[in-house]
Design goal:
By secondary structure, the protein is mostly helical. The chain contains ten helices and two strands; from the N terminus they run αβααααβααααα. The chain folds into two domains: about 45 residues; about 350 residues, Up-down Bundle (Outer membrane efflux proteins (OEP)), CATH 1.20.1600.10. About 80% of the residues lie in helices and about 0% in strands. About 25% of the residues are buried.
């Protein structure tokens, strides 16, 4: 009895040890799985509805460059105020324009500081324009990718249906080996194309989402996608001149030229003298930079206008094609409902609609991007 009790006691201890071991293992596994579950929860795609305007607002709030530009305004404003105060003492003593080096240096420092401050204001405006163009382009790229993916799905479904029909026909000896092989290759190609457009859409989302403060895996529902209006320009040259008047890059070059013009008429500044010929050459170069920039802007703006009109012509043709495709689909649907055509006929008509729709969406966003670049070329070049 004693030995049996000892065995029972040892067995109980062993059972207790095994239980504790199992509990420890289960707890360990549970703790180990917790981070995985949390990570998986974080990767559940978010699907908020976002308009283009909301996307732009989110991007501006999320952009580090925009924040830096705001801080730069504060910094340059403080420096401009200090330079103005320093110049005031010379102005009160009527020394400005008198040829006194210290007075000239103070005035030149003020002009430079004021120019830097104004340019920081322009830089903030330009950064906002760049963000707007960039977000609009990326927003449209997602919608284009979605339309092309829908077309690819339609193409793949149609190719698969044709392949299955041709497979039966081939087994029955109704089509040749060559015709059947062509059907197989078309089916395989459509499947590959579908995979490509799935990746294209993923890539488009990956480009847009970080800009608007979302994870790459998120799939926001973009609500702006159907608006289209031809551009209205009464006079292209007037628009070209307006663009040049508004361009921050040209404005900066013009201000720099004015600063060089002031330098030409002073004897010395910052305590040193530079030959008149050198200052004159610098002024001529600054004026040449302005003229060159204006010529570049004028040429690119005109080219953009003609590209816009070309896209509008293509869009009008695609709209006509869509109207015809929609009528054809409606007719096929009626015939199919009446049992007078096959499912393949109906799917073929639907495939045509999907194809033309993808073209329309692509042209629409190309048109939008071109108009934005036409109105503010510096935004397109800076994105």
């Amino acid at each position: 009895m004693t030995h049996q009790s000892e065995y029972e006691s040892e067995d109980a201890v062993m059972k207790t040890s095994r239980s504790r071991y199992l509990i420890a293992v289960m707890l360990g596994l549970g703790l180990a799985l917790l981070p995985v579950s949390a990570a998986q929860a974080e990767k559940i795609p978010a699907t908020p509805e976002i308009s283009l305007e909301q996307a732009i607002q989110r991007a501006v709030a999320n952009d580090e460059g925009y924040k830096d530009a705001q801080y730069e305004i504060d910094r340059t404003e403080a420096l401009a105020d200090y330079a103005s105060d320093q110049m005031s003492s010379y102005a009160n003593a009527n020394l400005l324009g008198s040829g006194v080096p210290a007075a000239e240096s103070s005035y030149y420092s003020y002009l430079g500081a004021e120019l830097t401050y104004k340019m920081s204001l322009k830089s903030l405006e330009k950064r906002e324009d760049v963000i707007k163009y960039d977000v609009t382009s990326k927003y449209g790229a997602v919608l284009v990718a979605q339309a092309k993916l829908a077309q690819a799905k339609s193409d793949a479904a149609l190719s698969e249906q044709e392949y299955r029909i041709n497979k039966v026909k081939h087994q029955a000896g109704m089509i040749s080996d060559l015709e059947y092989e062509a059907s197989v290759k078309d089916y395989e190609s459509s499947a590959d194309t579908l995979d490509t457009y799935v990746q294209t859409l993923d890539s488009a989302y990956a480009a847009l989402n970080p800009v608007i403060g979302l994870w790459a895996v998120d799939r926001p529902v973009l609500t702006d996608g159907s608006e289209y209006a031809p551009i209205k320009v009464l006079d292209v040259e007037s628009n070209v001149n307006s663009v040049m008047d508004s361009a921050p890059d040209i404005w900066l070059l013009e201000q720099t030229a004015q600063l060089k013009d002031y330098e030409l008429n002073i004897l010395g500044y910052m305590g040193s003298y530079r030959p008149y010929e050198a200052r004159l050459s610098e002024l001529d170069q600054a004026k040449l930079d302005v003229a060159s920039a204006k010529e570049t802007y004028a040429k690119s703006t005109r080219n953009l206008y003609y590209q816009i009109k070309s896209v509008e012509n293509s869009y009008a043709i695609a709209e006509d094609s869509m109207a015809q495709a929609a009528v054809a689909l409606k007719g096929k649907q009626a015939l199919y409902d009446a049992g007078m055509c096959t499912k393949l006929d109906l799917n073929t008509a639907q495939n045509t609609v999907d194809s033309v729709n993808a073209t329309l969406v692509d042209l629409k966003w190309s048109h939008t991007n071109l108009i934005n670049a036409f109105q503010k070329p510096w935004a397109a070049s800076g994105s």
